[in-house]
Design brief:
Strand order of the largest sheet: 2-1-5-4-3
CATH architecture of the largest domain: 2-Layer Sandwich
Distance between the termini: 68 Å
Number of helices: 12
Largest sheet: 5 strands, antiparallel
Number of strands: 12
CATH superfamily of the largest domain: PAS domain
């Protein structure tokens, strides 16, 4: 059964039950009210009938006057004499004839009661009251006044008809309102269910336009936000998948090239017809390619740790100038071989960072600067900048075109792939730099002019 049908039947049954219960209670309440009012009324009427009958004279008009009193009051009257014998009975109905003699116990009770005595049997069909008479004009001593309960309940027939008519009209209205209301309630639920099913099926472009200010409107907005988030996540996953595919393709390519070079060098050495210089040449080529593969895997391990290891960096307090001087000494001879001047500022600044990782950053930046600088200088230094310590590496090399700057730190991205591989690069150096600095809540910045040089810089926290 659909939710719309469940809601409709729930409202219908609840409202029909409520209307029926109220109608039944109303009829019962009216019956009790009418019988109670009838009891009070017969007591009052018995007293004035007693006065009327006491004043009646026994003559040719006695029966006429007695019948008139019964007709006017609407009661059945029975009059008994001193001995309790029936004296008169009006109006006359053979099936409702009064008893010939009043019960002695009732007669005694009536005589000892001031005013009227009501005898009401809940299971009986009539209300009956008695009163004692003291007439000097006729022999009447006891008056019995009675009326059928059906006569008292007569108005209920009309009231019941009115209630039942109203009840059936109400039930009809309830049916219409319940069906309409269930549709109103279930429509947004069905729309939400359909939208959720489509989104679960992969249709994240699905959106709901429910112009409602209630919980359904809030739920629709939440569902739209969820769909938007899923769309964004799907796009991100597609981008990550594309990057991953490209990443593995690049790794394969990066490893295959040096392996081919090593294999070629080994084949040449196996020929055994090479002189000593040629042998050294092929051995040196194989060694360089081996170091290149080693650096590649080292960089991959660094990137993998950045992606998955919460303890990727271990911060401590140290002098950044010591790291700068160490890298300068390490690459001084390599720079000198190319005729480059490697300069390092000598001003000391304490920073809070991982010294090994920062040295790796400086090493990558300086080695890149040496590779892509043909003449001139390379400078390293540190200075204070806006409450932090700014570290920079600047060269006078070939520079980087503007179109390459945006993707410069992507993994395996090269501005000139052929030249970069010739220089022994892995394509991961700047990605490693970015990852390390991101872990330090810092960013690597770059500015470059083609043909004039490039400047990289980043900032580190000072001790608090």
């Amino acid at each position: 059964m659909s939710i719309r049908a469940k809601l409709a039947w729930t409202f219908i049954l609840l409202l029909i039950f409520g209307i029926t219960a109220i109608s039944s209670y109303s009829i019962l309440f009216i019956r009790n009210y009418l019988i109670s009012d009838g009891e009070q009324q017969i007591i009052n009427d018995t007293e004035w009938l007693a006065v009327t009958i006491q004043n009646l004279r026994v003559d040719e008009d006695f029966e006429t006057n007695l019948n008139e009193a019964a007709r006017t009051s609407g009661y059945r009257l029975a009059i008994y004499d001193e001995d309790g014998s029936l004296f008169a009975d009006v109006p006359y109905h053979q099936e409702l004839q009064a008893v010939e003699t009043i019960d002695a116990a009732i007669a005694s009770l009536v005589r000892n009661t001031e005013g009227s005595l009501l005898l009401s049997d809940p299971s009986g069909e009539r209300l009956t009251s008695y009163v004692s008479l003291s007439s000097i004009h006729n022999p009447a001593r006891y008056l019995q006044v009675s009326i059928s309960k059906e006569q008292i309940y007569e108005p209920i027939k009309t009231i019941r008809w009115i209630i039942y008519t109203g009840m059936f009209i109400s039930i009809a209205l309830v049916l219409i309102v319940s069906i309409s209301f269930s549709r109103y309630i279930s429509k947004p639920i069905l729309q939400l269910e359909a939208a959720a099913r489509e989104i679960a099926g992969g249709n994240t472009s699905k959106s709901l336009n429910l112009d409602r200010k209630d919980e359904f409107g809030t739920l629709a907005q939440s569902l739209n936000r969820m769909a938007e988030k899923l769309r964004a996540d799907n796009l991100e996953l597609k981008k990550l998948n594309q990057k991953q595919t490209r990443f593995f393709a690049d790794i394969t390519h990066e490893i295959r090239n040096p392996l081919h070079t090593i294999a070629g060098s080994i084949e040449m050495l196996q020929l055994g017809k090479l002189d000593e210089d040629q042998q050294k040449k092929y051995l040196l080529t194989a060694e360089r390619q081996t170091h290149r593969i080693s650096r590649l895997f080292k960089d991959l391990v660094t990137l993998q740790r950045y992606d998955s290891d919460d303890q990727f960096i271990q911060k401590t307090r140290f002098d950044i100038n010591q790291a700068i001087q160490m890298i300068a000494e390490l690459y001084e001879s390599e720079a000198a071989e190319k005729g480059l001047k490697l300069m390092a500022d000598n001003e000391s600044f304490e920073v809070v960072a991982d010294p090994d990782k920062i040295e790796q950053v400086l090493e990558n930046l300086v080695s890149n600067a040496i590779k892509f600088t043909n003449n001139g200088t390379i400078r390293m230094g540190a200075r204070q900048h806006e409450g932090r310590i700014l570290v920079e590496v600047e060269d006078t090399g070939i520079g980087i075109s503007e179109e390459h700057l945006e993707r410069l730190f992507d993994r395996f991205y090269r501005t000139d792939k052929a030249r970069s591989r010739d220089k022994g690069g892995t394509g991961l150096g700047l990605s490693v730099v970015k990852s390390i600095l991101n872990a330090h809540d810092s960013e690597i910045q770059v500015e470059s002019n083609p043909g004039k040089g490039t400047r990289f810089w980043f900032t580190l926290s000072k001790p608090g």
